[in-house]
Amino acid sequence: MNFTNFDFDQLFSMSDDTNPIMMIIWIVPIILFVFYGQRIQLYITSNEIKKEIKKLDSFKETSRNGLIEYVKINLKPVDDPIKKIDRFLDYFTIMPVDMDPHGIVDKVQHTVRSREDYTREQVKSLSPNVSDLELNKVQTLLEIASSLQMIYKIVNHMFLTAKKQNNYPLILPLQMLLPFIMEQAEAMKDAIPAFKAGQPVGDGIGPMVVGKMMLNSKKEIISFQTVLSETDFEGRKLFLLKAEGPNSTVGRPSDALETIVSKNKLDTIIMIDAALKMEGEESASVAQGFGAAIGGIGTERFQIEAIATNNQIPIFSIVVKQSVKEAITLMTKEIADQSDNIRSQVYEMIQENTKQGQSVLIIGVGNTAGVPQ
Amino acid sequence: MFSKQKITVAYTVEKCIKCGMQRKRKFVNGDVLFAESSKCTSCDGMASIEKIFGEILEQ
Fold this sequence. Notes:
The complex is a heterodimer of chains A (373) and B (59).
Chain A: H1 8-11, H2 20-75, H3 82-89, H4 104-126, H5 132-165, H6 168-197, H7 205-214, E1 219-223, E2 226-233, E3 236-243, H8 253-263, E4 268-276, E5 286-290, H9 299-310, E6 315-322, H10 324-328, H11 333-336, H12 339-353, E7 359-364
Parallel strand pairs in A: 3-7, 4-6, 4-7
Antiparallel strand pairs in A: 1-2, 2-3, 5-6
Helix pairs in contact in A: 2-5, 2-6, 4-5, 5-6, 7-12, 8-9
Chain B: E1 6-16, E2 22-26, E3 36-39, E4 46-58
Antiparallel strand pairs in B: 1-2, 1-4, 3-4
Protein backbone atom coordinates (compact mmCIF):
# COMPACT_ATOMS: atom_id res chain seq x y z
CA MET A 1 0.00 0.00 0.00
CA ASN A 2 1.35 3.39 -0.88
CA PHE A 3 1.08 5.80 2.06
CA THR A 4 2.56 8.75 0.25
CA ASN A 5 -0.18 9.68 -2.11
CA PHE A 6 -3.01 10.50 0.34
CA ASP A 7 -5.36 13.16 -0.81
CA PHE A 8 -6.00 15.09 2.39
CA ASP A 9 -8.74 17.15 0.79
CA GLN A 10 -10.54 13.97 -0.04
CA LEU A 11 -9.84 12.29 3.28
CA PHE A 12 -11.21 15.13 5.39
CA SER A 13 -13.59 16.37 2.72
CA MET A 14 -12.18 19.86 3.14
CA SER A 15 -13.72 21.10 -0.03
CA ASP A 16 -17.13 19.95 1.12
CA ASP A 17 -18.61 22.22 3.85
CA THR A 18 -21.57 19.96 4.51
CA ASN A 19 -19.61 16.90 5.62
CA PRO A 20 -21.06 16.02 9.09
CA ILE A 21 -17.82 14.37 10.32
CA MET A 22 -15.91 17.56 9.60
CA MET A 23 -18.52 19.62 11.41
CA ILE A 24 -18.25 17.42 14.50
CA ILE A 25 -14.45 17.60 14.42
CA TRP A 26 -14.60 21.42 14.52
CA ILE A 27 -17.64 21.97 16.67
CA VAL A 28 -17.01 19.46 19.50
CA PRO A 29 -13.76 21.09 20.71
CA ILE A 30 -15.37 24.51 20.51
CA ILE A 31 -18.27 23.37 22.68
CA LEU A 32 -15.86 21.56 24.98
CA PHE A 33 -13.73 24.65 25.50
CA VAL A 34 -16.68 27.01 25.85
CA PHE A 35 -18.29 25.00 28.63
CA TYR A 36 -15.36 23.19 30.18
CA GLY A 37 -12.39 25.44 29.32
CA GLN A 38 -12.04 26.78 32.83
CA ARG A 39 -12.21 23.31 34.33
CA ILE A 40 -9.51 22.06 31.97
CA GLN A 41 -7.33 25.04 32.89
CA LEU A 42 -8.09 24.43 36.58
CA TYR A 43 -7.05 20.81 36.18
CA ILE A 44 -3.75 21.67 34.47
CA THR A 45 -2.93 24.50 36.89
CA SER A 46 -3.92 22.35 39.85
CA ASN A 47 -1.38 19.72 38.94
CA GLU A 48 1.37 22.34 38.77
CA ILE A 49 0.35 23.86 42.11
CA LYS A 50 0.05 20.42 43.73
CA LYS A 51 3.71 19.74 42.89
CA GLU A 52 4.76 23.01 44.56
CA ILE A 53 2.59 22.31 47.62
CA LYS A 54 4.28 18.93 47.93
CA LYS A 55 7.63 20.73 47.89
CA LEU A 56 6.41 23.19 50.56
CA ASP A 57 5.25 20.27 52.67
CA SER A 58 8.68 18.66 52.43
CA PHE A 59 10.38 21.99 53.36
CA LYS A 60 8.09 22.28 56.37
CA GLU A 61 8.81 18.73 57.51
CA THR A 62 12.57 19.07 56.91
CA SER A 63 12.76 22.27 58.97
CA ARG A 64 10.66 20.81 61.79
CA ASN A 65 12.62 17.55 61.97
CA GLY A 66 15.91 19.44 61.70
CA LEU A 67 14.90 21.69 64.59
CA ILE A 68 13.83 18.77 66.79
CA GLU A 69 17.08 16.94 66.05
CA TYR A 70 19.14 20.07 66.77
CA VAL A 71 17.36 20.68 70.07
CA LYS A 72 17.76 17.05 71.15
CA ILE A 73 21.49 16.98 70.35
CA ASN A 74 22.59 20.46 71.43
CA LEU A 75 20.16 21.49 74.17
CA LYS A 76 19.81 18.04 75.75
CA PRO A 77 16.33 18.76 77.13
CA VAL A 78 15.11 16.88 80.19
CA ASP A 79 11.69 16.10 78.68
CA ASP A 80 10.76 15.15 75.13
CA PRO A 81 10.73 18.49 73.25
CA ILE A 82 8.52 17.40 70.30
CA LYS A 83 5.20 18.38 71.85
CA LYS A 84 6.48 21.78 72.92
CA ILE A 85 8.15 22.50 69.56
CA ASP A 86 4.98 21.56 67.68
CA ARG A 87 3.06 23.97 69.87
CA PHE A 88 5.58 26.79 69.17
CA LEU A 89 5.34 26.14 65.43
CA ASP A 90 1.61 26.77 65.53
CA TYR A 91 1.97 30.05 67.40
CA PHE A 92 0.37 32.96 65.63
CA THR A 93 0.63 36.73 66.04
CA ILE A 94 -2.42 38.94 65.81
CA MET A 95 -1.32 42.34 64.59
CA PRO A 96 -2.94 45.40 66.22
CA VAL A 97 -5.99 47.02 64.66
CA ASP A 98 -4.94 49.78 62.26
CA MET A 99 -8.33 51.49 61.69
CA ASP A 100 -6.95 54.30 63.83
CA PRO A 101 -3.27 54.39 62.84
CA HIS A 102 -2.31 56.67 65.76
CA GLY A 103 0.26 54.85 67.89
CA ILE A 104 0.23 51.76 65.66
CA VAL A 105 4.05 51.49 65.52
CA ASP A 106 4.36 51.22 69.30
CA LYS A 107 1.60 48.62 69.35
CA VAL A 108 3.24 46.55 66.60
CA GLN A 109 6.61 46.81 68.31
CA HIS A 110 5.08 45.74 71.61
CA THR A 111 3.37 42.73 69.99
CA VAL A 112 6.47 41.61 68.09
CA ARG A 113 8.81 42.03 71.06
CA SER A 114 6.38 40.23 73.37
CA ARG A 115 6.38 37.32 70.95
CA GLU A 116 10.19 37.31 70.79
CA ASP A 117 10.47 37.42 74.59
CA TYR A 118 7.92 34.65 74.95
CA THR A 119 9.69 32.40 72.41
CA ARG A 120 13.01 33.01 74.14
CA GLU A 121 11.55 32.03 77.52
CA GLN A 122 9.96 28.93 76.03
CA VAL A 123 13.23 27.83 74.42
CA LYS A 124 14.96 28.44 77.76
CA SER A 125 12.37 26.26 79.46
CA LEU A 126 13.47 23.35 77.23
CA SER A 127 16.94 23.57 78.69
CA PRO A 128 17.42 26.16 81.48
CA ASN A 129 21.23 26.18 81.23
CA VAL A 130 21.35 26.85 77.49
CA SER A 131 23.93 29.42 76.35
CA ASP A 132 22.83 32.64 74.63
CA LEU A 133 24.48 31.46 71.41
CA GLU A 134 22.45 28.24 71.29
CA LEU A 135 19.32 30.01 72.48
CA ASN A 136 19.46 32.48 69.60
CA LYS A 137 20.21 29.73 67.10
CA VAL A 138 17.19 27.72 68.21
CA GLN A 139 15.05 30.84 68.18
CA THR A 140 16.05 31.57 64.57
CA LEU A 141 15.48 27.94 63.52
CA LEU A 142 12.10 28.07 65.22
CA GLU A 143 11.18 31.22 63.31
CA ILE A 144 12.19 29.57 60.01
CA ALA A 145 10.24 26.37 60.72
CA SER A 146 7.23 28.37 61.89
CA SER A 147 7.31 30.59 58.75
CA LEU A 148 7.56 27.55 56.45
CA GLN A 149 4.60 25.96 58.22
CA MET A 150 2.57 29.15 57.84
CA ILE A 151 3.44 29.44 54.11
CA TYR A 152 2.43 25.82 53.54
CA LYS A 153 -0.86 26.28 55.39
CA ILE A 154 -1.81 29.46 53.50
CA VAL A 155 -0.93 28.11 50.02
CA ASN A 156 -2.69 24.82 50.73
CA HIS A 157 -5.75 26.67 51.99
CA MET A 158 -5.97 28.85 48.87
CA PHE A 159 -5.54 25.82 46.63
CA LEU A 160 -8.11 23.66 48.39
CA THR A 161 -10.65 26.50 48.49
CA ALA A 162 -10.34 27.02 44.72
CA LYS A 163 -10.63 23.27 44.11
CA LYS A 164 -13.59 22.91 46.44
CA GLN A 165 -15.47 25.71 44.69
CA ASN A 166 -14.26 24.61 41.24
CA ASN A 167 -13.36 28.25 40.90
CA TYR A 168 -10.64 28.92 38.34
CA PRO A 169 -10.29 32.70 38.89
CA LEU A 170 -9.63 31.99 42.56
CA ILE A 171 -6.58 29.90 41.70
CA LEU A 172 -5.09 32.56 39.37
CA PRO A 173 -3.59 34.83 42.07
CA LEU A 174 -2.02 31.75 43.66
CA GLN A 175 -0.55 30.66 40.33
CA MET A 176 0.91 34.12 39.80
CA LEU A 177 2.31 34.45 43.33
CA LEU A 178 3.62 30.92 43.70
CA PRO A 179 7.05 31.44 42.02
CA PHE A 180 7.79 34.30 44.45
CA ILE A 181 6.52 32.29 47.42
CA MET A 182 8.63 29.31 46.36
CA GLU A 183 11.72 31.51 46.06
CA GLN A 184 11.23 32.72 49.64
CA ALA A 185 10.47 29.24 50.95
CA GLU A 186 13.49 27.68 49.24
CA ALA A 187 15.69 30.46 50.62
CA MET A 188 14.41 29.76 54.13
CA LYS A 189 14.98 26.03 53.74
CA ASP A 190 18.53 26.64 52.50
CA ALA A 191 19.20 29.04 55.39
CA ILE A 192 18.88 26.29 58.01
CA PRO A 193 22.39 24.73 57.67
CA ALA A 194 24.11 28.15 57.91
CA PHE A 195 22.27 29.11 61.11
CA LYS A 196 22.86 25.68 62.63
CA ALA A 197 26.61 25.96 61.99
CA GLY A 198 26.72 29.57 63.20
CA GLN A 199 28.03 30.81 59.85
CA PRO A 200 27.66 34.42 58.69
CA VAL A 201 24.81 35.04 56.23
CA GLY A 202 24.62 37.64 53.44
CA ASP A 203 22.60 39.94 55.70
CA GLY A 204 25.56 39.97 58.09
CA ILE A 205 27.75 42.14 55.86
CA GLY A 206 26.88 45.31 57.86
CA PRO A 207 27.81 43.75 61.23
CA MET A 208 30.92 42.24 59.57
CA VAL A 209 32.19 45.67 58.51
CA VAL A 210 31.41 47.37 61.82
CA GLY A 211 32.57 44.34 63.84
CA LYS A 212 36.04 44.62 62.34
CA MET A 213 36.13 48.36 63.06
CA MET A 214 35.31 47.57 66.71
CA LEU A 215 38.00 44.94 67.18
CA ASN A 216 40.53 46.77 69.34
CA SER A 217 38.21 49.05 71.25
CA LYS A 218 36.20 48.73 74.45
CA LYS A 219 32.65 47.43 74.00
CA GLU A 220 29.55 47.83 76.09
CA ILE A 221 26.01 46.45 75.87
CA ILE A 222 23.90 49.51 75.10
CA SER A 223 20.50 47.89 74.53
CA PHE A 224 19.13 44.39 74.29
CA GLN A 225 21.65 42.23 72.34
CA THR A 226 23.27 45.37 70.93
CA VAL A 227 26.91 46.43 71.36
CA LEU A 228 28.40 49.92 71.28
CA SER A 229 32.02 50.87 70.92
CA GLU A 230 33.72 54.27 70.72
CA THR A 231 36.79 55.14 68.69
CA ASP A 232 38.38 58.10 66.87
CA PHE A 233 39.02 58.78 63.21
CA GLU A 234 40.84 61.89 61.96
CA GLY A 235 39.56 64.07 64.79
CA ARG A 236 36.01 62.73 64.65
CA LYS A 237 34.41 60.67 67.39
CA LEU A 238 33.00 57.43 66.04
CA PHE A 239 30.24 55.47 67.74
CA LEU A 240 30.16 51.94 66.36
CA LEU A 241 26.95 49.96 66.82
CA LYS A 242 25.99 46.41 65.90
CA ALA A 243 24.04 43.44 67.23
CA GLU A 244 25.90 41.31 69.75
CA GLY A 245 27.71 38.61 67.81
CA PRO A 246 28.32 35.84 67.15
CA ASN A 247 24.71 35.22 68.24
CA SER A 248 22.03 34.99 65.59
CA THR A 249 20.34 38.28 66.35
CA VAL A 250 19.70 41.70 64.83
CA GLY A 251 19.72 43.49 68.18
CA ARG A 252 17.72 46.64 68.91
CA PRO A 253 19.56 49.50 67.19
CA SER A 254 16.71 51.99 67.65
CA ASP A 255 16.76 51.63 71.44
CA ALA A 256 20.55 52.00 71.33
CA LEU A 257 20.26 55.16 69.22
CA GLU A 258 17.83 56.65 71.73
CA THR A 259 20.32 56.07 74.55
CA ILE A 260 23.28 57.43 72.54
CA VAL A 261 21.40 60.58 71.53
CA SER A 262 20.29 61.21 75.11
CA LYS A 263 23.95 61.38 76.21
CA ASN A 264 25.79 62.67 73.12
CA LYS A 265 25.38 65.09 70.25
CA LEU A 266 25.44 63.18 66.98
CA ASP A 267 26.18 64.96 63.69
CA THR A 268 25.77 62.11 61.23
CA ILE A 269 24.48 58.56 61.14
CA ILE A 270 25.82 56.02 58.64
CA MET A 271 23.96 52.74 58.23
CA ILE A 272 25.38 49.68 56.47
CA ASP A 273 22.94 46.97 55.47
CA ALA A 274 22.10 44.33 52.89
CA ALA A 275 19.46 45.35 50.36
CA LEU A 276 17.39 43.27 47.97
CA LYS A 277 18.77 43.55 44.46
CA MET A 278 16.52 44.14 41.51
CA GLU A 279 16.47 41.63 38.67
CA GLY A 280 19.38 42.44 36.38
CA GLU A 281 21.40 44.08 39.11
CA GLU A 282 24.72 42.52 39.96
CA SER A 283 24.90 40.61 43.20
CA ALA A 284 27.24 42.07 45.86
CA SER A 285 27.27 45.49 44.18
CA VAL A 286 27.58 48.37 46.64
CA ALA A 287 25.44 51.51 46.52
CA GLN A 288 25.30 54.65 48.62
CA GLY A 289 22.20 56.67 49.46
CA PHE A 290 20.19 58.64 52.00
CA GLY A 291 17.75 57.45 54.63
CA ALA A 292 17.65 54.67 57.15
CA ALA A 293 18.75 51.37 55.62
CA ILE A 294 17.10 48.81 57.84
CA GLY A 295 14.58 46.11 56.98
CA GLY A 296 12.23 44.14 59.17
CA ILE A 297 8.68 44.96 60.07
CA GLY A 298 9.34 48.73 60.04
CA THR A 299 9.24 49.61 63.72
CA GLU A 300 13.02 49.95 64.10
CA ARG A 301 13.23 52.15 61.00
CA PHE A 302 10.36 54.32 62.23
CA GLN A 303 12.05 54.89 65.58
CA ILE A 304 15.45 55.66 64.00
CA GLU A 305 13.86 58.10 61.54
CA ALA A 306 11.92 59.80 64.33
CA ILE A 307 15.03 60.26 66.51
CA ALA A 308 17.07 61.50 63.53
CA THR A 309 14.34 63.98 62.55
CA ASN A 310 13.88 65.30 66.10
CA ASN A 311 17.63 65.86 66.44
CA GLN A 312 18.21 67.02 62.83
CA ILE A 313 20.76 64.27 62.16
CA PRO A 314 21.30 63.32 58.51
CA ILE A 315 21.30 59.59 57.76
CA PHE A 316 23.55 58.16 55.04
CA SER A 317 23.41 54.56 53.91
CA ILE A 318 25.62 52.04 52.23
CA VAL A 319 23.89 48.91 50.97
CA VAL A 320 25.14 45.67 49.48
CA LYS A 321 22.73 44.32 46.87
CA GLN A 322 21.80 40.65 47.09
CA SER A 323 18.93 38.26 46.45
CA VAL A 324 16.54 36.98 49.13
CA LYS A 325 18.40 33.67 49.13
CA GLU A 326 21.83 35.28 49.41
CA ALA A 327 20.63 37.45 52.30
CA ILE A 328 19.64 34.57 54.55
CA THR A 329 22.01 31.79 53.47
CA LEU A 330 25.76 31.40 53.96
CA MET A 331 27.51 34.57 52.80
CA THR A 332 28.82 34.31 49.24
CA LYS A 333 32.46 34.98 48.39
CA GLU A 334 31.45 38.04 46.34
CA ILE A 335 29.68 39.62 49.32
CA ALA A 336 32.48 38.75 51.78
CA ASP A 337 35.03 40.26 49.38
CA GLN A 338 33.21 43.61 49.54
CA SER A 339 33.88 44.15 53.25
CA ASP A 340 37.18 46.07 52.80
CA ASN A 341 35.66 48.17 50.03
CA ILE A 342 32.67 49.09 52.22
CA ARG A 343 34.93 50.01 55.13
CA SER A 344 36.90 52.40 52.94
CA GLN A 345 33.63 53.87 51.62
CA VAL A 346 32.51 54.47 55.22
CA TYR A 347 35.73 56.38 55.99
CA GLU A 348 35.38 58.39 52.74
CA MET A 349 31.79 59.23 53.68
CA ILE A 350 32.93 60.43 57.11
CA GLN A 351 35.65 62.64 55.56
CA GLU A 352 33.25 64.11 52.98
CA ASN A 353 30.28 64.77 55.26
CA THR A 354 31.71 65.67 58.65
CA LYS A 355 34.26 68.08 60.10
CA GLN A 356 36.86 67.50 62.76
CA GLY A 357 35.38 67.52 66.26
CA GLN A 358 32.06 66.09 65.12
CA SER A 359 30.50 62.78 66.12
CA VAL A 360 29.38 60.00 63.77
CA LEU A 361 27.32 56.92 64.53
CA ILE A 362 27.98 53.91 62.30
CA ILE A 363 25.41 51.15 62.50
CA GLY A 364 26.05 47.68 61.06
CA VAL A 365 22.51 46.51 60.43
CA GLY A 366 21.59 42.85 60.02
CA ASN A 367 21.85 39.41 61.50
CA THR A 368 25.17 38.99 63.21
CA ALA A 369 25.35 35.18 63.24
CA GLY A 370 29.00 34.12 63.18
CA VAL A 371 30.19 37.74 63.36
CA PRO A 372 31.65 38.78 66.72
CA GLN A 373 33.17 42.17 67.48
CA MET B 1 16.28 15.51 35.19
CA PHE B 2 19.95 15.28 34.30
CA SER B 3 20.98 18.60 35.84
CA LYS B 4 23.96 18.49 38.16
CA GLN B 5 23.34 18.70 41.87
CA LYS B 6 24.58 21.94 43.42
CA ILE B 7 26.10 21.90 46.88
CA THR B 8 27.43 24.82 48.92
CA VAL B 9 30.82 24.29 50.52
CA ALA B 10 31.77 26.62 53.37
CA TYR B 11 35.31 28.00 53.45
CA THR B 12 37.27 29.95 56.03
CA VAL B 13 39.98 32.41 55.04
CA GLU B 14 42.67 33.03 57.64
CA LYS B 15 44.99 36.02 57.48
CA CYS B 16 48.22 36.37 59.39
CA ILE B 17 48.17 39.53 61.51
CA LYS B 18 51.96 39.88 61.17
CA CYS B 19 52.84 39.06 57.54
CA GLY B 20 49.40 39.30 55.95
CA MET B 21 49.55 35.87 54.35
CA GLN B 22 46.16 34.40 53.57
CA ARG B 23 45.17 30.74 53.70
CA LYS B 24 41.89 29.23 52.56
CA ARG B 25 40.60 26.07 54.19
CA LYS B 26 37.30 24.28 54.71
CA PHE B 27 35.06 25.67 57.43
CA VAL B 28 35.05 23.77 60.70
CA ASN B 29 32.40 24.06 63.39
CA GLY B 30 33.23 26.79 65.85
CA ASP B 31 34.85 29.10 63.30
CA VAL B 32 33.73 32.71 63.77
CA LEU B 33 35.02 35.84 62.11
CA PHE B 34 38.00 37.71 63.59
CA ALA B 35 38.86 34.84 65.95
CA GLU B 36 42.53 33.87 66.27
CA SER B 37 42.58 30.45 64.71
CA SER B 38 46.09 29.10 64.12
CA LYS B 39 49.77 29.92 63.79
CA CYS B 40 50.90 31.35 60.48
CA THR B 41 52.69 28.82 58.29
CA SER B 42 55.22 31.34 56.92
CA CYS B 43 56.08 33.34 60.08
CA ASP B 44 55.59 32.97 63.82
CA GLY B 45 52.57 35.30 63.87
CA MET B 46 48.99 34.38 64.65
CA ALA B 47 46.39 34.08 61.92
CA SER B 48 42.85 35.30 62.49
CA ILE B 49 39.71 34.47 60.52
CA GLU B 50 39.21 37.13 57.88
CA LYS B 51 36.27 35.71 55.93
CA ILE B 52 33.79 32.86 56.02
CA PHE B 53 31.88 32.23 52.82
CA GLY B 54 30.23 29.60 50.69
CA GLU B 55 31.06 28.48 47.19
CA ILE B 56 28.67 26.49 45.04
CA LEU B 57 30.03 23.28 43.56
CA GLU B 58 28.29 21.18 40.94
CA GLN B 59 28.30 17.42 41.39
